[in-house]
């Protein structure tokens, strides 16, 4: 192996904020179009391959294990919408899914055998055909009109998350001449399918405009523009197909406008004007609205409102300190409330016929459940998704009359997987301030403790890393590893307060919670070595935690890591920065926030101590966490810290989510797993 990694040149760039002068010698790496930048990233990739070439056989073996455990030719459980059952197929040897439908002639989903096509099956869109030979391909939307005759779909071939929108007549298979470039994710049809609403982003990659496109006319009309740089906009159609819902929201505030979907050229009606700190959402339930909001209700409460005055809210389910209300799914005869309590998700059915509400019970100690694929407004069944750390993703129909759970499909895991060979646990670490931090754990029953452990963390945006199943994870569990998730503050696992205690000037709790979780895993006999893993904002967690306690880690995998957070949040011209001020604070205008962030951001706090081996993975076309953040971080680690090695892997043709095809994604995962296995067994 080479002992001479690439050395990033130092070009001092001075930054002065609030009287603080900082020299950033690697700022030049932000020059994406600079040939020196590309040469440096390519040199890092070559060095990475050189340093990990001895893992090639293991990587290939892991890839084959993932592939061999996956039923490559498979399909989703059909969901009924109007006169059709919709589903997607995957086929062996093909990177992307194929969306299909068959006519509906009953309430029971058709029994379709993977690999066999029905006589009356119609292909809506074939991702493989659209992708062609492109090294990257992603779809931003795929939406069928309410009458089932038209398809709106959008494509991206670079990873830059700007899509081109097209329309297909599903009766003839012909593409319409309408084509709109540079749009964002999502969109919504009018009730009659004559009009499609979509969003555009500004120079900071913020969706801020909603346009109305009338098919066949070439007319695109701006119907809403959000000028407050903290707010995003989005557009959707209610399940009842009665209302178009235009939402504007920041990290802490939201505002909703409604329009009768039968009059797409009409004016949107404001539900309630925005009020800082108040979030709300509206669902149509027939002759009234449900409103889920957090006004004077930290964990949210559920209210109702009349159709002619949607801003008049009458409480239905009041706030509870121990239960976070997540979303309400409204149907003609009932509603389903998705909630979180004691670190786990749950479902509560609210009948409209006067019967008392009730919760659906599940048997496992750790699990995750949510509504899934319920496009029909009038229905006697609820489709839900369920998984745990030992139970593969499962699709159930819940019969609302008999209250029976009907298992429709459990993702096949080939190769003789037996869930009884594994067991899951919930542990609690004690943070520096005495807070109990939950840890979810899974291992083989025959695993000898203490064992090498992968500890995953995220801890931002109230995002919860719930107990879930992973096929690739089996490859490390079967090699004697423990896998665990630290549910640190800043996430949403324990309610809204849990999130608020890990953001802004309480952000450091996220990092100290993670270090407490590492130490708990070791001291309680679970772990011999701990390899930490996290991505995006979880990559910030990785960098901050390893700065706090580098001696606790046997290795760190940081994927698309937000490790140069202070410099990014100081620059309002960068994508998404102003929006992020509600999450991290505004260091540009507030010296206290500046000082606080400078005290924890990974790039600012690398020092000369001995650090564990670190693998940073990024993508050149990432628009969310720019590639130069991990590039600068690795360069500074290599120049400043002892230990390592410090490795940088840059996908030169992908975005925030990495490579797009499933086989490519499996190879990337095999690469990371091989590196972690070596760290845990070295």
Automatic annotation (TrEMBL):
Q: Which Pfam families match?
A: Peptidase_S9, Peptidase_S9_N
**Residues in coiled coil:** none
Hydrolase found in the keyword field: yes
UniProtKB keywords: Hydrolase, Protease, Serine protease
* Source organism, top-level taxon: Bacteria
Q: Which InterPro entries does the UniProt record give?
A: AB_hydrolase_fold, Pept_S9A_N, Peptidase_S9_cat, Peptidase_S9A, Serine_Peptidase_S9A
The residues covered by the Peptidase S9A N-terminal domain are 5-409
- Where the record annotates domain Peptidase S9 prolyl oligopeptidase catalytic, the positions are 468-677
- Entry similarity comment: Belongs to the peptidase S9A family.
- Under which name does UniProt file this protein? S9 family peptidase
Instruction: State the organism named in the record.
Output: Nonomuraea corallina
Q: What is the lineage of its organism?
A: Bacteria, Bacillati, Actinomycetota, Actinomycetes, Streptosporangiales
């Amino acid at each position: 192996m080479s002992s001479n990694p690439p050395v990033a040149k130092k070009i001092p760039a001075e930054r002065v904020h609030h009287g603080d002068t900082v020299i950033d010698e690697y700022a030049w790496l932000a020059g994406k179009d600079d040939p020196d930048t590309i040469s440096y990233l390519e040199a890092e990739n070559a060095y990475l391959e050189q340093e990990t070439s001895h893992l090639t056989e293991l990587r290939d073996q892991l890839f084959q294990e993932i592939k061999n455990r996956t039923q490559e030719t498979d399909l989703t459980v059909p969901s009924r919408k109007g006169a059709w059952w919709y589903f997607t197929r995957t086929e062996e040897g093909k990177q992307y899914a194929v969306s299909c439908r068959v006519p509906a002639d009953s309430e029971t989903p058709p029994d379709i055998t993977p690999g066999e096509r029905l006589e009356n099956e119609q292909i809506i869109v074939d991702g493989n055909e659209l992708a062609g030979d492109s090294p990257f391909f992603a779809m931003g939307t795929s939406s069928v009109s309410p009458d089932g005759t038209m398809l709106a779909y959008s494509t991206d071939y670079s990873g830059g998350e700007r899509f081109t929108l097209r329309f297909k007549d599903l009766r003839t298979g012909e593409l319409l001449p309408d084509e709109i470039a540079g749009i964002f994710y999502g969109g919504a049809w009018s009730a009659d399918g004559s009009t499609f609403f979509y969003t555009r982003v500004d120079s900071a990659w913020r969706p801020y405009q909603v346009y109305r496109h009338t098919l066949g006319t070439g007319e695109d009309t701006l119907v809403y523009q959000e000028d407050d740089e903290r707010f995003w906009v989005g557009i959707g159609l209610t399940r009842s197909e009665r209302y178009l819902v235009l939402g504007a929201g920041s990290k802490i505030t939201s505002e909703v406008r409604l329009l009768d979907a039968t009059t797409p050229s009409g004016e949107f009606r404001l539900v309630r004007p925005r009020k800082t700190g108040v979030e709300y959402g509206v669902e149509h339930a027939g002759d009234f609205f449900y409103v889920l909001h957090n006004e004077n209700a930290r964990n949210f409460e559920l209210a109702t409102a009349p159709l002619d005055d949607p801003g008049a809210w009458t409480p239905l389910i009041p706030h509870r300190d121990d239960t976070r209300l997540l979303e309400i799914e409204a149907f003609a005869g009932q509603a389903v409330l998705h909630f979180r309590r004691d670190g786990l998700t749950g479902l509560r059915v609210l009948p409209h016929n006067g019967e008392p509400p009730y919760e659906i019970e599940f048997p496992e100690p750790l699990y995750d459940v949510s509504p899934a694929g319920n496009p029909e407004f009038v229905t006697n069944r609820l489709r839900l998704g369920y998984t745990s750390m030992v139970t593969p993703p499962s699709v159930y129909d819940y019969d609302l009359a008999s209250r029976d759970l009907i298992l429709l499909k459990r993702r096949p895991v080939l190769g003789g997987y037996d869930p009884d060979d594994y067991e899951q646990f919930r542990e609690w670490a004690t943070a520096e301030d005495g807070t109990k931090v939950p840890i979810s754990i899974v291992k083989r029953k025959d695993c000898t403790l203490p064992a090498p452990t992968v500890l995953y963390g995220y801890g931002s945006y109230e995002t919860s890393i719930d107990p879930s199943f992973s096929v690739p994870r089996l490859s490390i569990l079967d090699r004697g590893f423990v896998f665990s998730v630290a549910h640190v503050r800043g996430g949403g696992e324990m309610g809204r307060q849990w999130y608020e205690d890990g953001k802004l000037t309480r952000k450091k709790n996220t990092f100290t919670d993670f270090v407490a979780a590492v130490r708990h895993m070791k001291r309680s006999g679970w772990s011999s070595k701990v390899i930490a893993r996290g991505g995006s904002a979880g990559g910030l967690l990785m960098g901050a935690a390893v700065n706090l306690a580098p001696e606790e880690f046997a290795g760190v995998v940081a994927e698309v890591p937000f490790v140069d957070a202070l410099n990014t949040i100081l620059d309002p011209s960068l994508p998404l920065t102003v929006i992020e001020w509600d999450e991290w604070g505004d260091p540009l205008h507030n010296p206290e926030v500046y000082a606080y962030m400078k005290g924890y951001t990974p790039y600012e706090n690398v020092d000369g101590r001995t650090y564990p081996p670190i693998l940073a993975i990024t993508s050149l076309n990432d628009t969310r966490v720019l590639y130069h953040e991990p590039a600068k971080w690795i360069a500074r680690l290599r120049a400043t810290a002892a230990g390592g090695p410090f490795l940088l892997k840059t996908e030169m043709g992908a975005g925030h989510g990495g490579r797009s095809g499933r086989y490519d994604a499996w190879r990337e995962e095999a690469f990371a797993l091989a590196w972690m296995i070596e760290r845990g067994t070295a």
